[in-house]
Write a structure and sequence with these properties.
single chain; binds heme C; Cytochrome Bc1 Complex, Chain D, domain 2; two-stranded antiparallel ribbon
Length: 253
Amino acid sequence: MKGKVVAFVAVFIVLAVFAMGESFAASEADVGQKVFERRCAFCHGLNGDGNGMAEFVYKKDKGKIWKLYPRDFTQGVFRFRSTPTGSLPTDEDLTRILVRGIPRSSMPTTKDLSDEERRAVIAYIKTLSKRWKDEQPGIAIHPGDKPAWVGTPESVEKGAQVWKEMKCWECHGEKGRGDGPKSNDIKDDQKRPILPFDFTIGALKRGTEDEDIYMTYTTGLDGTGMPSYEDSLNEEQRWHLVSFTKKLMGKIK
Ligand code: HEC
Ligand code: HEC
């Protein structure tokens, strides 16, 4: 008898704790929804599908207009992750985006939000795509220690070789200006035209540290046509490519 009571109480406690956890999660997403409606919906749309009020023109060229689209959170596909291509980002990845914003894209920083509001809006974004129910975020990749030779003339030379062999120029053009032979025909996952990034001017979207560039080559930019080279290039080759990218960016003489 006593055993039964103990078991009953134990089950009750487990259920109560579980229910508290659930309602805590629900209220965090509720706070997040308010933040979202106030601060994100204007661009990302009230239901998070990327169709807000704003329209962003990235470039007009020979009668063609290239637009930039706020992310559609119902797809659950993210570009600036630390996780392998095809996987969901970590909370740290999303927090980093929210703190820094995305340069050259109109995605603003949210430095003025509290940590709690930022966590809440991230929790809310995760309610917008089924992917977050079905999958765990990928395991973060760390760039490791940057080799001392990154940026040396030898490394730039080797990077130029990789650039040639991997045909980066087909999309980005010989000089990285985004005008390669394929640049007019790239489509994003939603079949909308997307321009390869001209990285010879200004900041990069993910960030402009060597490690940021390395991570782009390691994880790819999912949904954009810019692939991951984690399998096709070894770490050394990816670092040489960072050297050559810096050369094209004008950061190395
Ligand atoms: C002024 C318009 C604007 C506002 C306001 C805005 N965003 Fe964005 N956001 C964008 C655009 C545009 C992109 C796509 C940028 C790109 O990839 O070039 C984007 C991309 C993102 C991404 C994708 C990051 C990735 O790795 O793919 C996240 C996450 C995001 N926004 C979250 C938010 C949240 C949360 C808010 C509100 C707190 C917000 N945004 C407010 C315009 C906006
Ligand atoms: C199929 C076309 C395609 C190929 C091939 C390609 N890219 Fe990209 N790349 C893109 C597109 C499209 C973007 C822009 C994504 C965006 O605006 O968010 C991009 C973005 C970038 C960026 C900017 C990242 C940032 O943080 O803003 C760099 C740097 C880059 N590519 C380098 C390379 C290198 C080096 C290679 C070859 C190893 C390569 N790309 C191959 C299409 C391509």
